[in-house]
Amino acid sequence: MSVFASLHEAQSFLEQHPDIEMFELFILDNNGVPRGKLLHRDELLAVYESGRPLPSTILGLTINGDDVENSGLVWEVGDIDCRAYPISGSLQRMPWRLIPTAAVQVSMHPTEGLPATVADPRHLLARVIDALKANGYYPVMAAELEFYLLDQKPDSNGRPQPARDVDGGRPRSTQVYGLRELEQIEPFLADLYSACKLQGIPARTAISEYAPGQVEITLEHRTDALQAMDEAVRYKRLVKGVAHKHGMTACFMAKPFDDLAGTGMHMHVSLADAEGNNLFASEAADGTPLLRQAVGGMLSTLLDSLLMFCPNANSYRRFQTNSYAPLAATWGVDNRTVSLRVPGGPANSRHIEHRICGADANPYLAAAAILAGIHRGIREQRDPGAPVEGNGYAQAKELLPTDWLTTLRALEGSSWAREAFGGEFLSVYLAVKQAEYRQFMGEVGEQDWRWYLHQA
């Protein structure tokens, strides 16, 4: 686990930013939802000196913020206070806020944070990374996140709609890689890149994606995988904040529209040695034997960990043929119709692009599942088989599940996951997702009425 931030970091920040009045203290729960408190300036130093108490239930909530009684973090422990401490480098100004405000991300202390520590998704990723490092493998990672820019007001039918561009119109057609589409959101992009620079987030290429109002911005790879996912977490918050300032909603929902492309989070991963040399580097397009073992491990654990890549009921609506969303446990070289893609490029850039996650996935949990799968593949020298050539959709022999319950049961019954992630973490995570499943299935809504009100 990385060392928590020093008191000097906070003192320096206060000296350099005398105008900051408020501080958002947040921790990321297992659904990827930031939760926390709003502090006054004179409360900040105490957080760095002795941590900040947060209720144990904060890491056992549903996506709607409801307690999950059988998580073990409610009545059994009396909703005890658990101490969280700031993550180094996370104290950053939030330039889009009206009141001068900064944010600081915290994580549960290994001992003072108990019992909530076992449910902290950042701790899980740190443990998986440490296990790889113990065997001489240093993961290098980056995230690509897609999102929709939506109007804050729904259309006349109460449904979400694309945000207006600088000309006052709404994008109506798919103009993938369209440059004019990026020009039409230039004020938003200008503020977004400026905020990323201010916060030290390595935002790079922006492209117009496969639907009106859909955008993707890549983040630069990091030799510290934990840092890479920290930045992905803060980037999502930043995108939402800047979009709100511009009168828009940034939507990371996996499938917000039935007739338009879903939103994904592509994860790029390679392994380095202690000196930083890429262990996947090869003149061969399909990489080294180690790369292929990593692919084999990820394919063999895909079903068991699919809930961490696609955590919500809506996540599975994204899986549709010829949609550039994966449908099967497949891999290939420079092929976007498969789940695991080895991109082309120079030998020293060889890596794997994991294309399964929805943009609604928690980056910490997704990365932990990816790296744990890779570790299994290396330990067991897993053979991924021949890479798919051509249309991976047409060649898929066994499709991924397209329903939430199947993946819930797969994770629940996985002995590999229990060993890789720990029984204590899984008991909390599964309790939360099972509670959400029951709530979702118990809610009667507009689709039920359309289908059954008059026909049943």
TrEMBL record:
Keywords: Ligase, Magnesium. It comes from Pseudomonas fildesensis. PROSITE patterns: GLNA_ATP, GS_CATALYTIC. Pfam families: Gln-synt_C (PF00120). Its cofactor is Mg(2+). It comes from the Bacteria. InterPro entries: Gln_synt_N_sf, Gln_synth/guanido_kin_cat_dom, Gln_synth_cat_dom, Gln_synth_gly_rich_site. Residues 153-172 are annotated as: Disordered. Residues 153-170 have a biased composition (Basic and acidic residues). Residues 121-456 form the GS catalytic domain. Belongs to the glutamine synthetase family. This is Glutamine synthetase. GO terms for molecular function: glutamine synthetase activity.
